[in-house]
Design goal:
Largest sheet of chain A: 7 strands, antiparallel
Helix content of chain A: 10-25%
Oligomer: homodimer
CATH class of chain A: Mainly Beta
CATH topology of chain A: Pnp Oxidase, Chain A
Strand content of chain A: 35-45%
Order of helices and strands of chain A: EEEEEHEHHEEEEEEEEE
Mean pLDDT of chain A: 96
Distance between the termini of chain A: 40 Å
Strand order of the largest sheet of chain A: 3-2-6-9-10-5-4
C-alpha cells in the first residue's frame, strides 16, 4: 500500500541548512514556492527533526540545490540526525558564508536560497516554515537567463533510497 | 534577472480540478506534501485565479498527475481562465466521477488525489490551500508497489513554455 502523498512523487530534492555556530544540514523533498511578490517559499519539516528546533530558534534557513554527484551526502544528510552527528564531519559537504543571513550556504551547490522565516504553519505531523527569500546565489552551470537549464541533471527523489534526474529533453508547449 | 523562486525549478506540473456543476481545471507547479498522518498536501494558488474563488466556495479539489502526451492541454489549462472559457470544451481533457469528493477527477491521468480543504493560509500574492487527502486513484502505469516507477516520464516545468521529464535513470543511495 502506497503512502497517499507518494502520488505526488517523484519530487525535487533539496538541502536545508539551519543554525549558525553549529550549522546543520538535512535533506528535504517538501519545498514549494509560495509567492512571487514578496518572494516566499515553504519548507515542511517534521516536528521530530533537529532542524525543526534549530529553525524555531534562529528563524532563518538556507535551501540549497545539490548536484547529482552529491547523492551520497544528500542521503546521509537525510538519514542521520544533527542531534547525534556533525554532518559536516561525516560528509564532504562544506559551508560558506551567506550574503544576507547568518545561517551559512553550501559550497558546490548550484543554488543557495537565503531565507528569513515569516511564520510557521502547523499541518499534521509537519510544520511549514514560510520563508521570505532575501538572496539567491544561482550558478550558470544550472541556470541560464530566466530559466533553469534543461540539460542540467536536477535530482529527484522517488522514495526510499531511489532517486532519478531530469532527462534534458525539451518539450515546448503552445506551439 | 531570474525570479527568485525560479531557483527551485524545474518543478513537477500537476492539474487542479475545482467546481462541481461547472468544473474547471488549471495547471499548478506549486503543490507540496505537508503531512503523512493525517495525509495532507498544499496547493498554492494566486488570488486572481478563477480556481481560487471556486475552491473557496466548494472547499474541495482534486490534484491530477498528467501524462506527457497531455502537454498541449496542460498548457491550455494553465494559460486560459475558466472565467471566460470552458476548458473541457477547448481541450481533450475529460472528467470522471471521484470516489470521495463531489469535484470530479480527470480521465487519462496517472493519479487523481481527492482532497477536502482543511484551511487556507495567505502567503504574499498566493493562498495555500491545505487539503486532506481522502482518496488516491493511482495507475500502475506510473506507480508500482510503494513507489512511482522510475521509467515513467513524469512532467516537469522549467518555466514559460518549456517543460521536460524525468530521465528514467535509477540512482540508488546509501550503497
Amino acid at each position: 500500500m502506497m503512502d497517499l502523498i507518494r502520488a505526488l512523487y517523484p519530487l525535487r530534492t533539496y538541502l536545508v541548512i539551519s543554525g549558525v555556530e553549529k550549522p546543520n544540514v538535512m535533506t528535504a523533498d517538501w519545498v514549494v514556492p509560495l509567492s512571487f511578490e514578496p518572494p516566499l517559499l515553504g519548507v515542511s519539516i517534521s516536528k521530530k527533526r533537529h532542524t525543526y528546533s534549530v529553525i524555531k530558534r534562529v528563524w532563518e534557513f538556507v535551501i540549497s540545490v545539490p548536484k547529482v554527484e552529491m547523492l551520497e551526502d544528500v542521503w546521509t544528510a537525510g538519514t542521520k540526525s544533527g542531534r547525534n552527528v556533525n554532518k559536516f564531519e561525516v560528509t564532504s559537504l562544506r559551508t560558506k558564508p551567506s550574503m544576507k543571513v547568518s545561517v551559512p550556504s553550501l559550497e558546490g551547490c548550484v543554488a543557495n536560497i537565503e531565507c528569513v522565516v515569516e511564520r510557521e504553519v502547523e499541518t499534521g505531523d509537519h510544520v511549514l516554515f514560510v520563508g521570505r527569500i532575501l538572496h539567491v546565489d544561482a550558478s550558470s552551470e544550472a541556470f541560464s537567463g530566466e530559466l533553469p537549464r534543461n540539460d542540467f541533471p536536477f535530482l529527484l527523489h522517488l522514495g526510499k533510497d531511489v532517486f532519478t534526474t531530469t532527462s534534458g529533453e525539451i518539450l515546448r508547449a503552445g506551439g
